[in-house]
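Issue 218. Parser rejects a valid record. Input:
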Amino acid sequence: MNMHLVKFLTTVILALASCATNAQVDGFNKGKGNMDLVLSANYEQGLGYFLADGPIALKRTRISAAFFAAFGITEDLDVQFSLPFINVQNVSGLQDAQLFLKWLPLKAPLGNGKLSFGAALGGSTPVSDYGTEGISAIGQQAKSIIPMGVLQYTAGSGWFTSLVGGQQIVQAPTPDALIGTYRLGHFGAKHYTEAYLQAQRAYGGKDYRGTGDQAPTTFKELGVDLLRVGGKYYKPVGKRVGLVGEVSYVLAGRNVDQALLIAGAFILHFRK
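Output the parser choked on:
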């Protein structure tokens, strides 16, 4: 297994700020003293919008850029930070800063590879007074705490599979949610490829265009469910530089865009 490559896989996986918080956590460690800086850009075209009772022909375009940094505090403990800038229907603003600590102390040999297990704890907070209402809403202006568990198997041949899941504990009136990501991928000396399935399920919440008890007084009350499928590809272009591309699509959900996403990122690696 190429250990130099393994030490920056975390940043390859996390480089694109494309989805929910669960995209922030994986089963790789950076390695003590190693750091990666990332600039990413996303284009997301809404093809419809999922209401509680099915899709409607409401289309939005979302363009975003993000700064991401990851640092290995120890061999088993990483810290990660991200900050997105989002434009929806020509309304722009910084959204929610996110900070995570990921600890993977349990690594056991299994077959020709290893099994990694651990936990992550993160949180997010709005960093600007962005809009929350209407078709140009950027977010829900809610702070959150996110505890998660991590399980990953990495084979000596470069194949890996992982399951990450947990809960977003969100500031009222936004509802809490269960979140999870399943990944299957392969890496070698000059590439990294993964396919993923991401899911989010809110604990209740109101519905966009809901009636009666489900009618929201603010979009902060909306409960967001989603099921997204996607893939990423990484290619190094120098000793310290790499590029990532991503495509994803929201298959189903509630109070979420039925969106096709195309994204790219520039990664700068610093190795101890």
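Fixed in the parser; the record now loads. The chain has a mean pLDDT of 90.
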